[in-house]
Amino acid sequence: MLKITGGKVYDPKNNVDGAVKDICIDDDGRIVATVDGNARTIDASGMMVFPGGVDVHTHVAGGALNFARGLVPENQRAARKFIHTPERRTGIGGMTPTTFATGYLYAGMGWTTVNEAAVPILSAKHTHEELHDIPIVDKATLLLMANNEIVLDLMEAGETERARHVVAWMIWASKVYGVKAVNPGGVAAWKWGKNASTLHEPIEGYQNVTAAKIIAGLAQIIDDLGMPHPLHLHQNNLGVPGNVTTTLETMKVLEGHRAHLAHLQFHAYGGHDWGSMKSEAATIAEAFNRNTNLTCDAGAVLFGDAVTITADGPWQHLLYELTGRKWGNLDVENETGCGIVPYVYSDRHLVNAVQWAVGLELLLLIKDPWRVFLTTDHPNGGCFWRYPEILQLLMDVEFRKEQIKRLPPEAQNRIVLADIDRQYTLSDVAIITSAGPARALGLAQKGHLGAGADADITIYPEKPDGQGVLFSYPRYVLKRGQVVVEEGEVRTVTEGHEFVTRPAYDETIEEYIRPLFQKVYTMSFENYPTEIERLRHPDVTACK
Amino acid sequence: MTGTSEAGVNMERRGVRIVDTFAEAFDMRAARVLITANSLGWAKTGAQTMTGFATSVIGCKVEAGIEAELAPEHTPDGRPGISVLLFGFDADGLSHRLLERIGQTILTCPTTACFDGLPGAAERVNVGGQLRHFGDKFQASKSLDGHRYWRIPVMDGEFLIEEKFGVQKAIGGGNFLILGRDQDAALAAAEAAVEAMRKVRGVILPFPGGMVRAGSKVGAKNYKKLTASTNDAYCPTLRGRSGVKSELPDNVNAVLEIVVDGLDRAAIETSMRAGIEAACRPGVVEITAGNYGGKLGKHHFRLHALMATA
Amino acid sequence: MITLTLKEQPVVPLESEVLSPDVMASLSNAAIRALPVYLGKTQCRVEDFFTVDGEASDELEIRGDAKQVKWIGRGMSRGRINVVGNAGMHTGAYMKGGSIEVSGNVSDWLGGEMSDGFIRVGGNAGGQIGAAYRGSRGGMRNGTIIIGGTAGLEVGMRMKRGTIVVGGLVRDFAGLEMKGGTIVLLGGAELRTGAWMNRGTIISLAPIPLLPSFMYAATYNPSFLRLYAKHLGTLGITIPYDPKDGGYQRYTGDTSIPGRGEILVWKPHAS
Known about the structure:
The complex is a heterotrimer.
Chain A: E1 2-5, E2 8-11, E3 16-20, E4 23-25, E5 31-32, E6 40-43, E7 47-51, E8 53-58, H1 63-71, H2 73-78, E9 81-82, E10 91-92, H3 99-108, E11 111-119, H4 124-132, E12 138-144, H5 149-156, H6 160-174, E13 178-182, H7 186-190, H8 211-225, E14 231-234, H9 244-253, E15 259-261, E16 269-270, E17 278-279, H10 281-290, E18 294-297, E19 304-310, H11 313-323, E20 328-332, E21 336-345, H12 350-365, E22 372-373, H13 387-395, H14 397-405, H15 409-412, H16 426-441, E23 457-461, E24 476-479, E25 482-486, E26 489-490, E27 498-502, H17 509-520, E28 538-542
Parallel strand pairs in A: 1-6, 2-7, 8-11, 11-12, 12-13, 13-14, 14-15, 15-18, 18-22, 27-28
Antiparallel strand pairs in A: 1-4, 2-3, 4-5, 7-23, 9-10, 16-17, 19-21, 20-21, 23-24, 24-25, 25-26
Helix pairs in contact in A: 5-6, 6-8, 9-10, 10-12
Chain B: E1 12-13, E2 16-18, E3 22-36, H1 40-50, H2 57-60, E4 63-70, E5 81-88, H3 91-106, E6 113-116, E7 123-126, H4 128-131, E8 140-144, E9 147-154, E10 157-162, E11 164-180, H5 183-197, E12 203-204, E13 211-212, E14 216-218, E15 228-230, E16 254-262, H6 265-279, E17 284-288, E18 299-302, H7 303-308
Parallel strand pairs in B: 2-17, 6-10
Antiparallel strand pairs in B: 1-2, 3-5, 3-6, 3-11, 3-18, 4-5, 7-11, 8-9, 9-10, 11-16, 11-17, 12-16, 13-16, 14-15
Chain C: E1 2-6, E2 14-15, H1 21-24, H2 29-33, E3 36-39, E4 42-45, E5 50-53, E6 59-66, E7 69-70, E8 80-87, E9 99-102, E10 118-121, E11 144-147, E12 163-166, E13 182-185, E14 201-204, E15 215-220, H3 223-233, E16 246-253, E17 261-268
Parallel strand pairs in C: 1-6, 2-7, 6-8, 8-9, 9-10, 10-11, 11-12, 12-13, 13-14, 14-17
Antiparallel strand pairs in C: 1-5, 2-3, 3-4, 15-16, 16-17
């Protein structure tokens, strides 16, 4: 039993905005209304108490990450080293942290739940093994679905009912939490060396299936299955100047459905080529504000080194051609693929400067903080352990304007950021880093400090650190009621839980899948699904 | 230019009167270029072509000449070579002249290579780094021991040139005049002076054969716009002419001037002393020097001070 | 001078980046003895493996068969290390200045990514001399490495500048992906010299097998080679240059990139 006393509590879900109140935690690691006098106390006077951070879109585990780690040994040499201690395992930080280090880094900055945004069914076992090795934080996962050829073939044949059962079977077979769509149809087309740059033309190899049909079809299936998190969509034409039109069209396609638009920053560009590229964040924000069926995460960019890792094969190839340096490309048979390109965002580069501004513009122009969440699409836009830098830019308009002045003058003509005076409040911060993503993920026990919530709590000093950045160094981080981090040091290493969704489906669908599988896959059907036993602490939600 | 004969201490050397006056010389900037080739002959051909038409900064933009022959042991690449000195008003101008002259006369001369001869000079100008473009991107650079060189592909193989050349403060316009009984005597004395002066390092004699037969004065008396004109005070045929105040003693019928540029005061003093000493011979009446009253150039070389120590 | 004499042969390689003038120049004898060295995952002390004489000097002498001692002189910027015996992997890696002399042999990665300084090895060396570590965009950025004996694979891989001279035969891929600088092969090489070469110069005094992507250009006596000959002469190394003795066959490559590098092979006049 534990009581946190004297701190200023920021719990937007329960309408607490800085009031000094006690937070009580029971022995099961849940927040309760009261505890008896024997409870241990943490004195949080002069500090701020937040619900632990929830990262709604990140890439931290699995085949693509591991391939990336191998592609950049020079990054590993330069990265922060975690030397083992009796409590802590070894690890390497940097842009593609190893598993143990990932947990220490997230927990060290007060984030307690992460959503691994890209899992192929074929290598789901690998992802779960790596997720298990990430200590402390709880995990959710998203299954790559929008280029799955068994599903696309069913959509082509108009077999929507069967498609729903197949998708549900695949979700349970992979032991994931939600569904991800990446460049719908485009990654399938990439297997032919092509892409899907329009929403309404048939995908390469198909007559009827279009990107729009995949998007609408999957969104419908997910709503029909009653999944807690809506379709999580990495739209077509990521990163392409002028993709504002694709994004607006996609929003139209999604009307009537729930959906989450991933890393929206990469989808808010105007212009028609790299030379004329500019921000269209204002247009996107305006449309987004109207489309209340949607949530999004920022996918903001920070200047410095990054490693781009996505399933968007054609985009990654284009980026490789722009940089002329390293490129890795993996094919996942029948399902998806991935591309990896190390990249540096430079504040001298016109396009990068615009990208930097667009992420912030979206965060500031989207009115409802419950619908826009803090991410960098780690490690694509920047490393997750730099989130506090973004919070500083959102909260301090003077500091933000100083940074804008350092951009190349031509970039300043392409953005609207300098005209925005809004500053994020601490409550806004609690929403975009925790309460909002928890709600969007459908995790009712996360993102708040009311009774019944998991006691995932981060306690920050009220004043910024030496570099003026607030939120960098929590005084305490609690995970399910245990103090895991104290004054920047990992004290106790716990094991996190994995959230899994079990949608309903007709068991006989396996008779359809099995022969098809045997025909087109190189592995044997029995080896394909991930057994529940592979997950050490699964937290299964049955839907409907 | 007026020569000033002052009443005062008399000095003579082997019957030749040394006038108690001074040469007035100016601040300049200098560069030294080392040209090597397969043979001394080809290095000399390149050097002579490079230093042609370089008698005066006024008309030629640069003053240049051969400083010395270099034995193979004393050149960077161990081949025979020539060192050339160039003098101009400033480093920027010099860098243009180096580029023009090396580009047109050394780059084009068979078997040559070209190196900086002032490695200690703090100011550096980029010559090889400009000339490299002639290589049309087929050139390559090499760095060795803190020096960077460019290898430019040419028809006879490769032209090797150092990237940066040093520029240092220098002095231009050291001079003395040889007043002879007749043209032959004046010429013989001037030739002897030049031969002695060419043995001194750190100096060049930019004019033809090292001497000037048409010494000039600033401006003109009878043409408004002329910047320089014949030094009528030292022209023998103008003695007695109205409007001319001649500086020539009665028995002088020909005058030749030696002009010397040098890297520093000591070099000019050494060379002037050697030259004047050699010029004091039969047929020479007087040695004097040219100045502007001491108001234009800050380097003064008093002839008596120079020869007193000889 | 500080003298470190190996008294105990480590069972697995010893990670010893503390063996550097930068580390020891201001330390007392006791402090030197207490410096950490890593035997696998166990942290030990210098004195567990070396007897230490002297203190507070930027001249180090290491005596013994230190072929299992890694990272000698790592990142050093000054002073001198003299190894009387052999040295292990990564000797002089990331070096910025000063000098290292080894009387015996060294292992792989000598002078890896060094940015300046001087290394001379009397015996044989391993592979990846002055090379880029895996994934890095460039190898040594300057400096001089001289090997008396043979060398292994990928000598000077991705080097940017500087000079490597090898007395004996080198193995495959000398000058792999070279970006600049000069490699002098006094004793020839095995296969694929200059593969993926972008820029730089490889000089071989003996005929070597060349990739088909290297194109013969001309036989000549380049001026710059005389500068090199003079420079190497001061280091006790002789290379021919006189037209009376022969000429260099220039091969341009690696044209598969297309690279602007060159391999110069000495061809003496028929004797």
